[in-house]
Amino acid sequence: MQIGLPSLKSGLSGRFACVTLQTVVSLIGVMPQVARSQADAQAGVRPSISIVPRLSVSERYTDNVSLQSVGKQSELITQVSPGISISSRAGRIKGIFDYSLNELIYARNTSSRQSQNSLNTVGTIEAVDNWAFIDFSGNISQQAISAFGTQSNNASAINGNSTETSVYRLSPYFRGRLGGFADYVARYSWSTTRSGVATASDAKTKDASLTLNGATSGPLGWNADVSSQALTYSSGRPVTEDRLRGTLIYSFSPQVNVSLTGSRESNNYTTATKESHNSFGAGLNWAISESTKLAAQLDRRSFGQSHNLSFEHRTARTAWRFSDSQDVSATPVQSGTTTLGSLSDLLYGQFASVEPDPFKRTELVNRFLQDNGFRSDAKVISNFLTSSASLQRRQEASFALLGIRDTVSFSLTRGSNSQLSNFVTGLGDLSNSSVVRQTGASIVYAHRLTPDAALNVIAARQNTSGALGIQSTSLRTIDVTLSGRLGRQMNASIGARRVFFDSTTTPYTETAVTGNLSVQF
Predict the structure, then answer these.
(1) What does pTM read for this prediction?
(2) What pLDDT, in 10s, does the model give residues 452-475?
(3) CATH number of the domain at 5-520, out of 2.30.30, 2.60.40, 3.40.50, 2.40.170?
(4) Are 493 and 464 a contacting pair, CB within 8 Å?
(5) What CA–CA distance (Å, rounded) separates 507 from 505?
(6) Quick one: what percent of the chain has pLDDT higher than 90?
(7) Pairwise CA distance, residues 407 & 172, whole Å
(8) C-alpha–C-alpha distance, residues 247 and 229, integer Å
């Protein structure tokens, strides 16, 4: 099997190519084991390394390619998407790499040819046996620039409020034991976010931390950590935080423990220069049963209250989740993630109680999407970019029914991003509004018509509002798809979508029909 790295590299844009190809090379470094993995597959043993090239071609007809309220233009869009998926579950590299290059061709020349990258990779490299590790992750996707601008879940639409955003993270760390009294983890993290537009700020983050977990045998335990974070924006003031924290933990039983936390932190979240503050908190972890868990943490910090509440419950066929959190969010993409984002993100969260291992869970989600004809990058709810640190509140509730022939997923989200201080830059929505509020709801239904055919329906609604009355939008979409296998490695689908977008400035409606053919090699 040959993989065309030169052609792949030529398709990538600029600085994305270097990081993406480095990740490919690091994973392809295990190629000598592929032959053995293929032999194991023939013998009925699940291979530890999987490399699957693919090619997808789709045709989309839309009656409103420019998402306009008047003067609609119809268009036939051809999308050619070569891609590759690499998965490693054994050896020193455990991770998943999935990349597609999406070439968009507009038959009526309503837009010039476009190239869009789609990347999702996450993994861990064990550099030294059971001591030194390197975590890595990367994502390239289309993101909304402004929450108040034109919203669309269609990446092929001509939308000036959408941009290709990349996020990369590299984090080496060491773990071991100090004498017989504590386990330690020393970690350094570097991450970068780039949006490629002048109206949003790029960001770089550097984190260093040392965590100690007391090795105790009684009911009383402890942990302590010291951390330092520095975040710089291409447009805007830098944000820094230093923190020293200690926690006492009392276990009433293996299933229930409570904790008390005290910390000393120094940051410039709300002031022009760094100021020091004391903070305190309390927490509860309760494993009610093997399938039901409750966790809560409440802290009083320099900027106000932060909290994290989560509840999970699962049965043989259902998964229930609820979370409520409030904290500082400083990374541009994370700051705008007050909702669940793509379909794969939604399912990844819902399958957490079914499969806790992150790599196995990613494979489970990918397999579910492929078997039911869903696109992994399909947007359920749109995110947006910010250019400063903000106070983020998020509430999410979801339910999934995993049947033999029917799978139903419901999700409700509510979130807000608020200004932390008066030192907000002139970029992003928070420079024009003190708060951005978003609510969302979605229903995902998959029905297996036959072992090789499925009917899928996605219905979603998202409302956005700001401090001003004119800062209000609403996006409603319904997407129906019929998919099936034409062979062992070939899948086809046909679908229709209807979109309603309400806005005081740029309302529109859209109807689209799509046909897709994909082949794995």
Answers:
(1) 0.82
(2) 899 999 999 999 999 888 889 999
(3) 2.40.170
(4) no
(5) 6
(6) 51
(7) 39
(8) 20
